[in-house]
Amino acid sequence: MKKRKLPIGGVQTFSDLRRDYDVYVDKTMHIYEFATRYKAVFLARPRRFGKSLLCSTIESLFRGEKELFEGLYISETDWEWKEHPIIHFEFGGNDYTVDGVDVLVKSVDEQLDRVCVTYGIVVKKSKYIEHRLSNVIIELSKKIGQVVVIIDEYDNPLFNTFDRPELNEKIREKLRGLYGVLKQSDRYLRFTFVTGVTKFAQVSAFSGFNQAFDISMNSEYCTICGITQEELETYFAPEIDAFSPEHGGKEAYLNRLKEFYNGYFFTKDKIAVYNTYGILTHFANSGDFAPFWSMSGEPSFLRKYLESKEVDVVDIESTEMSARDFGDYRDNTITLFPLLYQAGYLTIKDYDERTGSYTLDYPNVEVRQSLASFLERNYSKEENTIRKSTMTKLVGSLLDGKPEDFMGLLVPYLGRVDYSLSSKITEYYFEFAVSNIINMLGLECRNEVHTANGRMDSVIFADEYIYILEFKVDKPIEDALWQLEEKDYAQIYSDSGKKIMEIGIIFSREKRNILEWEVKE
């Protein structure tokens, strides 16, 4: 196969993508629908999901660049290819942590300068940036017609300074004024599109701009960012055909792609998408499986949050939230689970119509491994406590069906880990510590697995082997082995064709480590 040119490395300009690259996954049907229905639209998605490219696509559309859309869905519609003046703000590239308000004002001023040059208008700088924005909108509408405003990463200035309340409040006040201008300028505006990581329903900076239609959890637009399974197999058929033989055939390869990169759900509907950056980088790297999304950079706001708040990290796995909690970002008040969802580390896994609650979990192996690695780096006593040689041995012992070797390596490692963010020294504390290590190694470990006979503490899946772990704290090893025997947990996997090993493990609260363990005969 001739290697195709894929839009890797943060290609965010629609015109460049269409002219210089071989693949564009057509999302123009969604753009047509909301751009013809609504005056203002808001979309929240995690980083590296193509929000900036979407903004650029909307910009090209409203510029009337019809030739770029040939062969795409929107080219067959009744779209009016009329040129509108564009004001496109990007708030993602600056550091607001020192002189945040000045940085914001300077950024807006510079971007308005470029708008004035592009359209040949003169609007002098003003003491108040809100006045200049208003005047630019008015002048553009007089000269050309109704204006389109695009705001990418609206919340970056807020996230960048959430740990500095006074500065955050000043930035919020300035943003409130800017967004207030948009409301006052409604008659001059054709369309407004705003993106960010967080849903803005509760953010007071938008108090003057509350008419935008939020499509973040709207079923109709659940696939507007990311790549569906159908899109993957249609647009990337050459890459799939090329790499399938290396991974056991097409079916096996597609299943592994699903496990590693798919699994993001943004509505209660069961429609999953792949992270765009991760899957494209996988193809560009000759089909190698690696956590490319997390390797592209970790969100600094998540690290700041975990460092500044009293968080029990063992509570991260499998949680429930109501619909209103997804927008639970009230200025300086951020809570853990909405933050992890918005950052892309958790996704919707189930929805209960009776209670209106959502169950959240890791999207896939890549994210599970990435978050485990993130926590290990930030909450261990030592940097890089698992060396490559140890990682290889740990994985190898599980894949080879040698629990004795695995436990022998695990005990000294646990002795070096300090999950100091957890105050709950319970069985689940140790379940989390062990599953975190397994997930970081790239294998799958599930906690609190329910069966007809009860609840298994942890289950590890390692190719031909399934390990069922029963944890007890400060109790005899016989208690753990008796529960494995009494509950007959292994029965649920009896038809899997895999070899099942059951291990009882005793932890010590005082030592925060394994005191004793035994494989059930």
Describe this structure in words.
With 521 residues, the protein is an alpha/beta fold. The chain is 40% helix and 17% strand. Among the domains are: 14-221, Rossmann fold, CATH 3.40.50; 383-521, Trna Endonuclease, Chain: A, domain 1, CATH 3.40.1350. The strands form four sheets. A five-stranded parallel beta sheet has the order 2-3-4-1-5. Strands 11-12-13-14-15 form a five-stranded mixed beta sheet, with helices on both faces. A three-stranded antiparallel beta sheet has the order 6-10-9. The longest helix is centred in the N-terminal third of the chain and has 20 residues, at 100-119. The chain starts with 13 loop residues before the first helix and ends with a strand. Residues 380-387 and 419-423 have low confidence and may be disordered.
